Amino acid sequence: MKKILNDPSTVVTDALRGLALAHPELLRVSTDPAVVTRVEPTPPGAVAVVSGGGSGHEPLHSGFVGPGMLAAACPGPVFTSPTPDQVVAAVREVEAGGGALLVVKNYTGDVLNFETAAELLEAEGVEVRTVVVDDDVAVTDSSFTAGRRGVGGTVLVEKIVGAAAARGDSLDRCAEIAGRVNSQVRSMGLALSPCVVPHVGRPSFELGEDEIEIGIGIHGEPGRERIPLEPADGLVRRLLEPVLDDLPFASGDEVLLFTNSMGGTPPLELYLAHGIAERLLAERGIRVRRSLVGPYVTSLEMRGISVSVLRLDDELTALWDAPVRTTALNWGS
Amino acid sequence: MGCGVDEVVAAFHRVAEVITAHRDELVDLDRAIGDGDHGENLTRGFTAVRASLDEGEHGSPAEVLKLVASTLISTVGGAAGPLYGTALLRAAKAVPDRVELGPEDVAAALAAALEGVVARGRAEAGDKTMVDALVPAVAAAERAVGDGGDTRAVLAAASAAAETGARETAPLVARKGRASYLGERSAGHLDPGARSTALVLGAFASPGPSPSRTPGKECEG
Prior knowledge:
Chain A: One of its GO terms (molecular function) is kinase activity. The complex is a heterodimer. Chain A is α/β, with parallel strands linked by helices.
């Protein structure tokens, strides 16, 4: 294992310290328990959108804390969900009478910890709604598994519901919008190489020089099948077809196309893939109205990509365009 | 005679030692069908448990169980934190004001723990989870009580049954938790949660490290 770190057991808090020092105007970091909060206070009566999950997916979620997006994020250990006390501490700090919307990726650990936190907060009299993001079409057998995983679509949910909270929407309305984004987005990813979790020290799975893994999650867990590497046209088609067939997306749809790097894929390859995806969408009569390209939901240093497609309506488009100021997404403000 | 507060504290120290000693094994089991964090998370959690047990006095076995539960919930993360935490909270509720845990109390605590895990995790027997170690453990504990076994015998029966239950998760296809995404590929591996459950019960049933063994620090008949 070759990594820039001192001690695997302090990697998350060490990185949070750097994050706090780099962006003092935007966010505040406490490490016991680990919570990243927005410097700008939640306006009285507004909804506080709070998310969190294992570390190793940066900029998700800490990089999305700021005006127009998250009020707070709870980073867990690498690839491990945060604990309920983190979520409770985060909500206590940013909730301002309008209640809290928790954005949770559908993994057993995340769901159980946020569920426990929600019970504790409700017992304190805080109004809480939860939206569970499950956009990964690689999980087909969802009735015999823990269900579809939350992957790339999480960023789109957090941006759009963050904008809804910023314009003063109620907690119920925010929950409805977040649920709508989740119901209209589908994603799938592939890996060219695995990642190495610092405290494990070895690759999360083995891949031959000419093999790729299709349908990976974002925790270095193996995917659905292993196939020989092929040209980019074929790879992007393998991701996009299950995504489009699932919702299903139809000719005439207007969408947001999000091409995501799993951490180790260079922008050159990422834009190449994005161009192919947009062409494949055009072939089906689907118009890309908005785009997002970059490393936003990563798996440490994994080489690979995921593609997410969100069906837009006018309200979702306007909320996507609304101003946002975070370390990872920043426009209009 | 049964299991008093000091014995329960000593048992959790043994659990911490056993989990720490098996950290790498649990990491490897979880790496095969999950994401490799189970050994690390439980070691972190039980290390914190030892520290919180060392702070101050404890009034009853139920209080110890509650303290261990809340420590695990706030330090383990993953699915294991809330599942172990809920299990121990429910166990504490099943034996609220006992000064000593007798054979029936141990069986009742185990049954309550199982109920808690099922309610929180929504898993059933055969889903390849910690439920597959707990279900046979509860049944064996109840049988041992019926046979007139003492506390020690009930714990030993539960531990042996959990061990077998954990071993029998190997051929199962996971239907809950992160391993479920692998489908058929999850077969052929032990479930790490069932394995750690068997380790915890094993440490509870074991007499503890022999050199420093002091009377009254193990559950007696």
